[in-house]
Amino acid sequence: MTQITIKTPQMKKGSYKIEIGANTLNSVLAKIQADFPQKKLYIITDSAVAKAGHLKTLLAGTDVLSYVIDPSGEVSKNINTVISIIEDMETRSLGRDSVITALGGGTVGDIAGFAAAIFKRGIPVVQVPTTTVSQADSAIGGKTGVDSSMSKNAFGAFWYPAAVFIDVTTLMTLQENEYLSGLVESVKHALIADAKYLEFIEKNIDRLKACDLEILEQIAVYNCNIKGRIVEDDPTEKNLRRVLNYGHTIGHAVESASYFRLLHGQAVAIGMVGAAMMEIEMGIGTQERLKRIESILKKLSQPTRIPADLPKEKIIDLLRRDKKAVNKWPKFVLLEKEGKVYKQGDQFAVDVNQTVVEKVLDQLYKPV
Ligand SMILES: NC(=O)c1ccc[n+]([C@@H]2O[C@H](COP(=O)([O-])OP(=O)(O)OC[C@H]3O[C@@H](n4cnc5c(N)ncnc54)[C@H](O)[C@@H]3O)[C@@H](O)[C@H]2O)c1
Ligand SMILES: [Zn+2]
Asked: Is 147 near ligand 1, meaning CB less than 6 Å away?
């Protein structure tokens, strides 16, 4: 078992612990109750996670109140679910002295975290992530929220977890495409922050694909340290936190253009290949690095080219409307080398002109 401590931002003094282990889920509630002896516990999960048996394991025979979001997944990540949760808590006479435990992937974590942020002006949330995305990414960093009918995470708040418990064993019941595409965020962390981590992934890729618990624990430690430290330094995304957006600018556009047929990690995989191509065009990248990234992604069964049926004009239009676009053109996070992000002055998100991006998009349509 490994324990990591992450400081919360200055405006909110303190820190939270992340506990990483295997087969630890059945002892999590007892630990939460010990950390919050006077508080009432309330679990939020979803139907697929419950069906996979994880709610039962978490409960470990206790009768802690729970709310099961149904259906599971992004369709339920909206304000109606949050209202329903809050009203359920009131119906069950839960008040400010409650603690929410979020058991599930990023959708459960985002919904439960947001519900915790606004219930009676805020109560603690403990994150218990069960997907490769949530264990590497969404459970750490304090971003919570739900979608409106028009955009993702339109309602949201920064609400730091009181603690995070990662049991890598839970990943074994994930669908293979969810499991593998979620690992793309781990490859991203290695590329932006730690060349040794990248070597670790390459060396252990077969064991990783086979859901080897020892490797998964080590990956979780790398991920939590990398994401945790970045968020510690820049909690509100002024500059450094933007490095986490590596591969995401093209990735988000491709994901939207596919009407979410591509999973987030699959779209980010294409975006990271695009970033490596841009680096070559700008004289800061190498063919060798591009090939290395493509090879890892292929071994994880991830796409490295844009599907031919997604129109290029649509992707360019989406890039112009990127959330972080300035004068209708986004900035991009690029690498100087494996484990190090390229900077223009002190900026981590840099200018790449449209001609270069269009040339790269053309390359991304060519079959490998
Ligand atoms: N807050 C953040 O910083 C942040 C970061 C990245 C992503 N996100 C958000 O996370 C969401 C995506 O999260 P996700 O990829 O974890 O998807 P998810 O939570 O929707 O999970 C995918 C599917 O797998 C099921 N599932 C979860 N764990 C399982 C398990 N162990 N066994 C079997 N089935 C399981 C879920 O019920 C769901 O049907 C998006 O809404 C995204 O916006 C947030
Ligand atoms: Zn992502």
From this structure: no
Other CB atoms within 10 Å distance of the CB of residue 307: 14
* CB within 8 Å of 66: residues ≥ 6 apart: 42, 43, 44, 45, 55, 59
- Whole-structure pTM value: 0.95
Residue with tokens 């709610």: 55
The two beta strands, 125-129 and 143-146, are: unpaired
Read off the pLDDT band of 11 (50, 70, 90): very low
pLDDT digits (tens, 9 = 90+) for 49-95: 999 999 999 999 999 999 999 999 999 999 999 999 999 999 999 99
- How far apart are alpha carbons 365 and 14 in whole angstroms? 48
Q: Give the mutation target among 81, 178, 189 for probing the ligand 1 site: most ligand atoms within 8 A of CB.
A: 178
Shortest-distance atom of ligand 1 to CA 113: 1
The residue type of 181 is S
DSSP state string for 69-108: ESS-SGGG-BHHHHHHHHHHHHHTT--TTEEEEEEESHHH
Bridging pattern class, strands 15-21 and 340-341 = unpaired
Residue (of 156, 148, 150) closest to 78 by Cα position: 148
Instruction: Please report the domains of the chain, with CATH numbers, ordered by start residue.
Output: 2-174 (3.40.50.1970), 177-368 (1.20.1090.10)
**Cα 285 to ligand 2 centroid, rounded to whole Å:** 22
At 178 the three-state DSSP class reads helix
Q: How far is CA 300 from the centre of its chain?
A: 17
DSSP 316-348: HHHHHT-TT-BTTB--B--EEETTEE--BTTBS
Residue pointed to by tokens 């987030």: 264
Convert the pLDDT of each residue in 255-271 to its tens digit. Answer: 999 998 999 999 999 99
